[in-house]
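Support reply, case 0932

Customer input (verbatim):
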Amino acid sequence: MLTEFGKAFTFLLFSMIFVVITVFMAKFIRPARPTKEKQTTYECGENPEGSPWVKFNIRFYVVALIFLIFDVEIVLIVPWALVYKDFGMGGFFVGVVFIVLLLLGMVYEWRKGDLEWIRPKMVPPRPNIKQYVPEAKVVSTSSDVSLENSNQG
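Our regenerated output:
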């Protein structure tokens, strides 16, 4: 008679053995006829253009991370909405505070411009050159130097 742990272990053992056998059998059964076209990158039926090592705009990653953060937090609202009556007014106000914090975070991201695909270009201020360059005094000219050299010789 197997315990519950023994049943789970047996199931995991048989599933791993099944996966290993299936992968090796597929490798031996399938035909191996690689061609140049089969080795290229697949881009939805289109011929690939350029190098696959393309630099992506960081905006894609930022928007994806913001989506994940807010998506996971919104999922937490569903259980709260189902049981907040059981916790009374305290449970209700905790949920309201959570929603207000989510809205503040969304407003912050929106105002910061992280939800825009195209950000306006930042134009740095141009410094006043006259303010930073001190006036230079002319000590000698090239004709003075040549006269001094001829007098020494």
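We compared this against your earlier run and they match. Two observations from our side: The longest helix spans residues 4-29. Helices lie at 4-29, 36-39, 58-75, 77-83, 88-112, 129-132, 142-152. Please reopen the case if you see a mismatch on your end.
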